């Protein structure tokens, strides 16, 4: 009996020893390819998408290996992941491994965080299939614009902008929006939270509350923004145009008619000359006839957009009306109403004009690149960098470029006025808002108009030996008229431009804008 137990024990030990020796002698892993894998033998996916790059493989023993990834993950030119190997029944080996990377991608040269997971299979004849997944800020960090940025603002495409994705580590991620939120040249969204699907969040900025979401795929950042602007003055809403009405200018007699109100708001005070109210009424009348033909209403949207219903039909204007209004004969409200289109109104696109409130003023911010792209289509994309460069140039340089490109000679316009216009383009046009008796007046005040309307000496002497004076509004009008931009039938209005400038310097108040009703 004892002898049988001894034989049984010896048999078990022998089998165990044989099995152990069998495992130790499995050198099949040594037949696996070493070094760089031929591209035709590599099947490579990153986050579910086919991708390219160079893959190397080095088996260390039956259970472990190292997978090298060159130019596979954008921003990380060389990544090595230690993987575990599990031999399969068909002789291939299943691979799995993970690596945390704590350096920023090379494209930005700053710290970041990235996790790379490797799953795959390799055969003895050198066939390698890898399925990689990468997550973390390292995939996003960089500067995005033009073709690498798809930016949606309120559900509509917003072009010509730049977004910077940055991080100091995996838990401190931020988005920098350049000139995206109205009134904010730079907006930093901090604490951006990333997951495998992208990122979402809400932030409160200087001028707005911003909901954002997005992802990055094929090196393109998609960013969706839903914005609600601060609206302390209650300006959000749709406004129609003020009514056209006729009154009398008693200083010229009870039968002398003038335009008393219209869609063009003119508040001109402090001039003793009795003809000044006549010219103010003439301005009001011209605006009251022209504006309703092209503009039906204006909407200040809660996301900061400004939209309008407009007409693209030709404007009807009888130049004789100008002389008639100077003689006390003005078109009736019925005459003006007949000029207004009854149909064919168009809705303006979003993301071309924006509003924001600052220190009680309403700023009108134009998206110059967006306007040009809307007008020119795909041809405008190549001009984006040129336009941005122009806007950063000195006034004298810009005047020269406009002369070369458009044939408009603005050399007579002062640099001060051009600097003001550039500020309006970059920061927005500052407008006052006044609400009374159901009307909302949105207008430029005297101070804002000063660079355009104030008189200055030219350095020349006229035929009577007097020093000549001019105004930049006259210089601008003359330049665009000579370039053929102003239709010939409207050229006669040039005298009114000169008159306004002449009286401007004697006025205490000069407000010019829109008369709106809500």
TrEMBL record:
Keywords: Signal. Residues 1-19 form the signal peptide. InterPro entries: DUF4925. This is DUF4925 domain-containing protein. The lineage of its organism: Bacteria, Pseudomonadati, Bacteroidota, Bacteroidia, Bacteroidales.
